Amino acid sequence: MKQQIPGPLVTIVLDGVGEIDRTEGNAVKLAHAPLYNHLRASSRFTTLLAHGKAVGLPSDADMGNSEVGHNALGSGQIYDQGAKLVNDAIESGAMFAGSVWRQLVDRVLRNDATLHFFGLLSDGNVHSHIDHLIAMLRRAASEGVTKARVHALLDGRDVGGTTAQIYLKQMEEVLAVLSEQGRDFRIASGGGRMTITMDRYEADWAMVERGWNHHVHGKGRTFPSALEALETLREETPGIIDQNLPGFVIADEQGPVGPMRDGDCVICFNFRGDRAIEMSRAFDEGDSFTYFDRGTKPDVLYAGMMQYDGDLPSPDHYLVGPPNITDTLTEFLVPEKVQMFAISETQKYGHVTYFWNGNRSGKVDERYETYMEIPSDRVSFDQRPWMKAAEITDALISALASGTYRYLRVNYANGDMVGHTGNLDAAITAMACLDIQLQRLLAAIKKANGVALITADHGNCDEMFELDKKTGQPKRETDGSIKPKTSHTLNRVPFIVYDPHGHVKGGLKDDPSFGIANIAATTVELLGFEAPKRWCPSLLV
Ligand SMILES: O=C(O)[C@@H](CO)OP(=O)(O)O
Ligand SMILES: [Mn+2]
Ligand SMILES: [Mn+2]
């Protein structure tokens, strides 16, 4: 129902805070969070889908993630996303018929050179899928490529915390088969995704530099094989989860097996953009690149699985076209001259700007948009579970007090970033910290005569234990301790309307098929507009 609230409207995204009845291992329920519990008990509380097909992923077995979640939140629509687009391009053969694939393979054949692949080696399907890599390796072999190298980033964040051996073994088997008939396909380097290569939003370029030295120059601690590297590195740091493992280089008697050379080609097989952009820039950019010293940069042709940033644009070459997200919430509100404010800390800043606006890094219109980034700490977030929630709240309170903005949006990273560490105690603290900041923020919204919509982009800290699918009980390590879960969840997410002055008319529709893509229409209705027909319908009765 179209209605116009008199004060500001604030969308609060509690990143990684899902909803499930189970209390065990659920930081949301275990935390001292009196305000959040009070809000959940209100009549304008419901839960929404935030995973699988409801956010454009191939199947309902796919957990949600920030990219697809914020795309859905910010566009009010469901688009086929990277994972689905790549599956389709491989299945239909369109990827291999495309000009970029041809250029890459032809160049390798012409130069008698090596085809390199780097990316996240798992079936997490958030940034990548190992099946995509395997399909490309097989195709390259069938087209005559004789030398390929895989630079394998270990996951432990979108899949079980210590599962790297599963994917490494699978990869070694595939490479061994492909290496028959005179081919030479091998793993050349690797490391934990939170240690090398996969930084995002320029939070820590040193990660990318470490990745560059391992993958490109073959510089790093050497091991005879990736599985031996994994075993040794785990022994050296008991309890370490895969995402935090240091980098490694594979070497034989002649030295590192896969430094990149002039004439080679390189494919990043991640489909998701945020953590692929910095490395893409390191490959593509000329002397203007100043983030770290790349040493002698080999003359390689580089391609991404997808275009990771449509505005830079980056990379120059990519295999699959991006989803073309149009008619976003911001594009709708700009012509209506609605002043907007968007804020988060570095780790989620691009989520609430770039992903929110349909993968656009520039503003739609400077005159109506203010963005604010609070620099994130550079630590493992179980060491600082409060993160920058207080500083973000300070800035939001000022923005509300200024009276300038009619629509504000914020992402609090705590539930997700602390959830990914697998540390339940820290996640409980994260939720308690969030509750205190929500108390401050909602008081300011009340003072400004406003309304808040509180939601999440997907679950994470709502399930901090790995559960046995059959018994539903927590899985145990060999020493009897509970196995921590570091990945997102498949759970629904909260949707709460905070309306202290009773401005909002009507209740919430009760439709279990509604997801987070239904929030945009709700937002514009509360701002006094009719939502575009192509958006998912509003949640207001
Ligand atoms: O950290 C990340 O890159 C992903 C998990 O792979 O999390 P999110 O989607 O919440 O950003
Ligand atoms: Mn998220
Ligand atoms: Mn996450």
TrEMBL record:
Its EC number is 5.4.2.12. Residues 86-309 form the BPG-independent PGAM N-terminal domain. GO terms for cellular component: cytoplasm. The active site is at S66. Keywords: Glycolysis, Isomerase, Manganese, Metal-binding. It is an enzyme of class 5 (isomerase). One of its GO terms (molecular function) is phosphoglycerate mutase activity. Residues 9-530 form the Metalloenzyme domain. Mn(2+) 2 binds at D15, S66, D457, H458. Mn(2+) 1 binds at D416, H420, H488. It catalyses: (2R)-2-phosphoglycerate = (2R)-3-phosphoglycerate. Its cofactor is Mn(2+). Pfam families: iPGM_N, Metalloenzyme. CDD domains: iPGM. Pathway: Carbohydrate degradation; glycolysis; pyruvate from D-glyceraldehyde 3-phosphate: step 3/5. The keyword S-adenosyl-L-methionine does not apply. GO terms for biological process: glucose catabolic process; glycolytic process. Substrate binds at H127, R157, D158, R193, R200, R272, G273, D274, R275, K348. Catalyzes the interconversion of 2-phosphoglycerate and 3-phosphoglycerate. NCBIfam families: pgm_bpd_ind. Belongs to the BPG-independent phosphoglycerate mutase family. This is 2,3-bisphosphoglycerate-independent phosphoglycerate mutase. It comes from Sulfidibacter corallicola.
